[in-house]
């Protein structure tokens, strides 16, 4: 029983979560919200507080080096606050890209990755 608890806790510590979708879809799911601004000017899109994590995919933070993105990297925006030096976006072709994790320890300090595509 104790070993099972330790294994479960280790799995939780090694789990990251990510989602890749359009801004509209992520707002409909309650993951993104618009904040600030005045009369529609200056609003910023950010992660909602207490969002539902069920639509997220799981990533093993110890072994995940790349995340495939079915979109041109020019049309991709990372909403979550991952350190910019910890990853890079690499174009595969006009319709596909990859997020390469350069520094997993730094990157996964924030366990939730939110990628917006057009």
Report on the structure:
The chain is of the alpha+beta class and 118 residues long. The protein has one domain. It is 19% helix and 39% strand. The protein has three helices and nine strands, in the order αβαβββββββαβ. The strands form three sheets. A four-stranded mixed sheet has the order 4-1-9-6. A three-stranded antiparallel sheet has the order 5-8-7, with no helix packed on it. Strand 2 and strand 3 form a beta hairpin. The chain is globular and about 55 Å long. The mean pLDDT is 92.
Write the layout of secondary structure elements.
Elements: H1 2-13, E1 15-22, H2 23-28, E2 32-35, E3 44-47, E4 57-60, E5 66-69, E6 76-78, E7 87-93, E8 96-101, H3 104-107, E9 112-117
Parallel strand pairs: 1-9
Antiparallel strand pairs: 1-4, 2-3, 5-8, 6-9, 7-8
Question: What's this model, at a glance?
Answer:
19% of the residues lie in helices and 39% in strands. The protein has 118 residues and is of the alpha+beta class.
The number of domains is 1
As residue ranges, the low-confidence spans are: none
Shape verdict: globular
Strands in their spatial order, largest beta sheet: 4-1-9-6
- The number of helical segments is 3
- Give the percentage of residues in beta strands: 35-45%
Strand segment tally: 9
- Order of helices and strands, N to C? HEHEEEEEEEHE
Helix content: 10-25%
Between the first and last Cα atoms, what is the distance in angstroms? 47 Å
How many whole angstroms does the radius of gyration measure? 16 Å
């Amino acid at each position: 029983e104790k070993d099972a608890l330790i294994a479960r806790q280790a799995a939780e510590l090694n789990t990251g979560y990510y989602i890749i979708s359009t801004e509209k879809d992520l707002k409909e799911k309650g993951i993104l919200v618009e904040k600030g601004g005045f009369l529609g000017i200056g609003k910023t899109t950010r992660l909602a507080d207490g969002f539902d994590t069920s639509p997220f995919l799981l990533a093993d933070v110890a072994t995940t080096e790349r995340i495939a993105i079915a979109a041109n990297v020019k049309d991709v925006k990372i909403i979550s606050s991952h350190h910019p030096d910890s990853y890079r976006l690499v174009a595969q072709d006009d319709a596909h890209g990859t997020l390469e994790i350069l520094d997993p320890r730094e990157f996964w300090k924030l366990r939730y990755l939110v990628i917006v595509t057009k």
